[in-house]
Automatic annotation (TrEMBL):
Database matches in Pfam families: Aminotran_3 (PF00202)
Organism phylogeny: Eukaryota, Fungi, Dikarya, Ascomycota, Pezizomycotina
InterPro entries attached to this UniProt entry: Aminotrans_3, PyrdxlP-dep_Trfase, PyrdxlP-dep_Trfase_major, PyrdxlP-dep_Trfase_small
Cofactor: pyridoxal 5'-phosphate
Superkingdom of source: Eukaryota
Similarity comment text for this entry: Belongs to the class-III pyridoxal-phosphate-dependent aminotransferase family.
Record bears the keyword Transmembrane helix: no
Protein name as it appears in the record: Glutamate-1-semialdehyde 2,1-aminomutase
Organism: Talaromyces amestolkiae
Keyword vocabulary terms for this entry: Pyridoxal phosphate
GO MF term set: pyridoxal phosphate binding; transaminase activity
Length: 438
């Protein structure tokens, strides 16, 4: 890989880093203590940043405040899980109600499970559903169902795909800590011919795909690609599993509804639990029957907290009274127009925003054109990304180092406009660094 860092860029990054260290002394001290008990001071890799992470003390509505006393507009939105923000009154009151009147571990099946499951099934067109505690688990169990249903083992998936902690495929291969190392066929994203060939090869149980690769930089699958996968899979009896963990928020029925897809199974996570640990998977009744304990040879699906009362109540209230279908539609429109504005002000520069609805990623292109349909084909300038991160933090925006943005429902439009202005200022300040030669 070519290195694109220039002397001017290095000087700007070093200066920004020095300012970061100076403004966040308390975070630095906390980090230095944390490394003595947590490897690298960290318990969730993505939150590690150099030279140390800023520690957040509390969040309120659409803002977070650091241990150093700085308040930011939260643009990270907990990687899509914080859609409801940090103190939505409806969510808080549902939570309180459970704590006061229901109890947290009641040791029995509850009626609430069905209510919540029913709501998710209705919204996302599923015949049957199961709850888990994370999106990772949802994908693992969906794959188990597909394997049982087809009596096959292999799974076609895509380079750069992220389906959970042990289901990661950056750089075109399974990560070293993945499960089922021998069972993956990893294909380039948006390469329909390669996908078809893999789907038609022997021994394939399922294809597992994100409709938009979220962790890999909000790269959208084209209509042709996603429908082509669906078609090729159904022709040969391979199950089509759409990972909606990040994308379920982008329309009232998720990405599948927006793109007219009918996957055999879908997997969920993030905000659907009202901000609590959550996962779910579901779809065709005949495939999900794999888990029916009344049937011979069923798969056991355990998990102490699968049916936890907090999530089943709070998630239900959120989906039925806060993130209603109408709100979902407006939110996505607001997100799309925000991203379009960002791409207007960054036009002609290396900075380019991809995504759909309220989920986006800023890219820092080494060269044109301003278009990405497969991250493997694009080179970026990581140091420019880092500079952007430092300087957006200084402008009062809580952004992720990887440039990922997920909007929070309560964030006022005026703050989004202020963000656009901050991007504009970054561009005028660093004109030569961001100019894109074509
Ligand atoms: C598309 C996708 N699938 C699965 C997961 C895993 O979900 P969890 O972190 O809840 O295990 C994520 C998390 O970011 C995700 O983005
Ligand atoms: C979930 O349900 C089981 C019985 O099916 C019960 O023993 C358990 O306590 C419930 N879990 C929670 C966290 O409520
Ligand atoms: C960017 O600029 C080009 C050339 O001036 C123009 O054709 C294009 O429509 C612009 N795109 C956006 C998103 O503003």
């Amino acid at each position: 890989m070519q290195l694109y860092i220039t002397k001017e860029l290095q000087i700007a990054v070093d200066a920004a880093k020095a300012r970061y260290i100076a403004s966040n002394a308390r975070s630095k001290a906390l980090h230095e203590e944390a490394v003595n008990v947590l490897p690298g001071g960290n318990t969730r890799t993505i939150l590690h940043t150099d030279p140390f992470p800023i520690y957040i003390k509390h969040g309120k509505s659409y803002q977070v405040t650091s241990e150093d006393g700085i308040t930011y507009i939260d643009m990270a939105g907990e990687f899509t899980a914080a859609l409801y923000g940090h103190s939505n009154p409806v969510i808080l009151s549902a939570m309180n109600d459970v704590l006061q009147n229901v109890g947290m571990n009641v040791g029995a099946t509850t009626a609430q499970e069905r209510l919540f499951a029913n709501e998710i099934c209705k919204r996302f067109q599923l015949e049957r559903l199961r709850f888990t505690n994370s999106g990772t688990e949802a994908n693992l169990h969906a794959l188990a169902a597909a394997r049982k249903f087809t009596s096959k083992r292999k799974v076609v998936t895509f380079s750069g795909g992220y389906h959970g902690a042990v289901l990661t495929f950056s750089g075109g291969k399974p990560a070293s800590n993945n499960v089922d190392m021998d069972d993956w066929i990893v294909v380039k994203y948006n390469d329909l011919d390669a996908a078809k060939e893999a789907i038609r090869s022997p021994g394939v149980a399922a294809v597992l795909v994100e409709g938009m690769q979220g962790a890999n930089g909000c790269i959208c699958g084209t209509l042709e690609f996603l429908h082509g996968i669906q078609q090729a899979s159904s022709e040969v009896g391979v199950l089509f599993i759409l990972d909606e963990v990040m994308t379920s928020r982008i329309s009232e029925g998720g990405l599948a509804a927006l793109r007219g897809l009918k996957p055999d199974l879908k997997t969920f996570g993030k905000y659907l639990g009202g901000g609590l640990a959550f996962g779910a998977f579901g779809g065709r009744a005949d495939v999900m029957a794999a888990f029916d304990p009344r049937l011979d040879g069923y798969i056991s699906h355990s998990g102490t907290f699968n049916n936890n009362t907090l999530v089943t109540h709070v998630g239900h209230v959120g989906l039925t009274t806060v993130f209603t279908p109408e709100v979902a539609r407006h939110f996505t429109e607001a997100g799309d127009s925000f991203r379009e504005k960002l791409n207007e002000v960054t036009n002609g520069t290396r900075i380019y925003f991809t995504g759909v609805g309220t989920v986006a990623t800023a890219h820092f292109l080494a060269k044109g054109p301003r278009h990405i349909d497969c991250a493997d084909n694009v080179e970026e300038i990581p140091e420019l990304k880092t500079l952007f991160w430092f300087e957006m933090l200084e402008a009062g925006f809580w952004v992720t180092l990887r440039g990922f943005i997920a909007l929070i429902l309560e964030t006022p439009p005026s703050e989004l406009e202020r963000f656009v202005k901050a991007v504009k200022s970054f561009i005028s300040k660093h004109q030569t660094l961001v100019a894109l030669e074509t």
